[in-house]
Amino acid sequence: MDQKKSQHNTPAVGDETAELTSLAASDKKIDEKPTATATLDRKDKNPVSEPSVKDKNRVPHPSASSEGGNGRVPQPSASAEAGITTTAPPQERRQRPRPKISEIPPAPPPPPKLDDYNSIVGQAEIDELRFLAQRLRGKTVKMVNSTAVGGGVAEILNRLIPLMNELEVPTKWEVITGGNDFFEVTKGFHNALHGGEYNVTKDILDIFMMYNEQNRQRMDFVEDIFVIHDPQPAGLIRSRNDKRGKWVWRCHIDLSNPHPDVWGFLRPMVEQYDAAIFSSPAFARQLNIPQYLFYPCIDPLSEKNKELDESYVQKVCDDFGLDRTRPVITQISRFDRLKDPVGVIQAYKLVKKYVDCQLVLAGGGATDDPEGAVVLAEVMNEAGDDPDIIILNLPPWSALEINALQRASTVIVQKSLKEGFGLTVTEGLWKGKPVIGGAVGGIPTQIVHKLTGVLVHSVEGCAYQLRYLLTHPEFADQLGRNGKEHVKENFLMTTNVKRWLLLYQLMLGVTKPAKPEAK
Fold first, then answer.
1. Beta-sheet strand order (sheet of 389-393)
2. Of the segments 62-76, 141-155, 195-209, which one has the largest average pLDDT value?
3. From 3.40.50.2000, 3.40.50.150, 3.30.470.20, 3.40.50.1000, which CATH number describes the 13-103+302-490 domain?
4. pTM for the model
5. Quick check: helix, strand or coil at residue 296?
6. Each residue's pLDDT tens digit, 460-507
């Protein structure tokens, strides 16, 4: 990897804010006032530095164009831009289409088999997993989290558990239970650990510990390894027995700037574990236990990521009222303020002044997130009566529909204000789509700026990059190709399985040191 600084006169990630604001002002003033969530994202004075890459692999960027390198979006001819109109013509007001959402869950797909991945990762990778599992046969594992549906953790476990059992490493998955008061507390903890304000009281801590104790009494802990996911079930560590079992705390959220009172409450529990796992080096904390880095992953064979027939993709677009003759911008996320869906709508409104496009906001709720309905109402209010904003509150069994929406998209957005890792970014990259992501959490691990995608810090920055990608399809296509290769090398399920097998060997002391070379 060439470590020399790029010679391109490209603007930093945040520089597009002033440009887009200027472009918008020349048309007319923006009617919408920024929301509080959008204000939180305004960090353009501290741009992300551009990663070093070989010049031959770098994708051309706006300021490297023939427009003089001043960062202004070029105005391409209609023929050069494959018919995309750069100035949106006035349209007759039409009603927003009513989407057809399936209310009946389909039969669950069969669990994956290791050999099914051969065509994607190669036989050598599959053989390595079987070899690593040999020393762990008969060792048992229990994984515990807070929800069976909704969110990236549940999706990962749904695919990881069958593969571990096929490798003869018996793995059991249990989900903690709790009332609305418990999940309101844990949602408050979640936001606070991402840096939000939270008033920690004795009653709140008592609610957290009471439900953890109830779940602890309900569960049996007889396995060799216990993996506890995220803060919600962290109190289960009180069942630790020094005579049996190793305990691992797997944290999927961004702990780079946690609320001191919430982290001060959780940290003594975390330090009773044998190890902690984080999704990014920036998330790690000062702890007196070993810490490991695990990237989350997607399953390329799951309903959400497998290849689809074009006819099915078109059917889903028809059901949801999407016009595929015009560009489609999509964000797939649960309705959560930290995902900034309102900010995405504001960016779309800026872009709509120049490009006739559509916006899809598709998501649903997780059983451990009580705020989803409130945020959905805020999103609907911001969207108003614009028929080109399609808001989909999808049930948990909509993986195929989400897959089709991503494949039908022109650009995929994940404009998070805080993020653990952001598997929707991984999904978009895997489908070869250009992805715009907030420069937070684990997203920069996936999006190498201007190589595998684009990072942004603000509503205006997001709009600037959206407009550029929509009017420069060759640049967008190259980002998509690079992004898919990046996912294949780093963020697939088979790589995740390998990491777990190696960690189990290390925790249980069954690894064998390498033999010294003969002199």
1. 389-393, 358-363, 328-332, 411-414, 435-438, 454-456
2. 195-209
3. 3.40.50.2000
4. 0.76
5. coil
6. 999 999 999 999 999 999 999 999 999 999 999 999 999 999 999 999
122-297+493-508 matches 13-103+302-490 in CATH topology: yes
Q: How far apart are CA 122 and CA 124, in angstroms?
A: 6
What secondary structure, in 3-state letters, does 233-255 show?
CHHHHHHCECCECEEEEECCCCC
CA-based nearest residue to 365, from 385, 389, 393: 393
C-alpha to C-alpha distance for 483 and 38, rounded to whole angstroms: 27
Proportion of the chain above pLDDT 90, given as a percent: 68
For residue 276, list its beta bridge partners.
Answer: 249, 291
Best CA proximity match to 59, nearest among 68, 67, 50? 50
Task: Note the pLDDT tens digit of each residue in 196-209.
Answer: 899 999 999 999 99
Burial 357-376 (b: 16+ CB within 10 A, else e): bbbbbbbbbbbbbbbbeebb
Closest C-alpha among 206, 204, 178, 202 to residue 189? 204
Assigned CATH class of 122-297+493-508: alpha beta
Three-class SS of 158-169: HHHHHHHHHCCC
CA-based nearest residue to 419, from 394, 452, 446, 395: 446
Cα gap 346→503, rounded to integer Å: 44
- Tens-place pLDDT, residues 233-291: 999 999 998 778 999 999 999 999 999 999 999 999 999 999 999 998 889 999 999 99
Contacts of 37-42 spanning 24+ positions with Cβ under 8 A: 37/337, 37/340, 37/342, 37/343, 37/417, 38/340, 38/342, 38/343, 38/346, 38/458, 38/459, 40/417, 41/340, 41/343, 41/415, 41/417, 41/438, 41/457, 41/458, 41/459, 42/17, 42/457, 42/458
Encoded tokens for 513: 């040191």
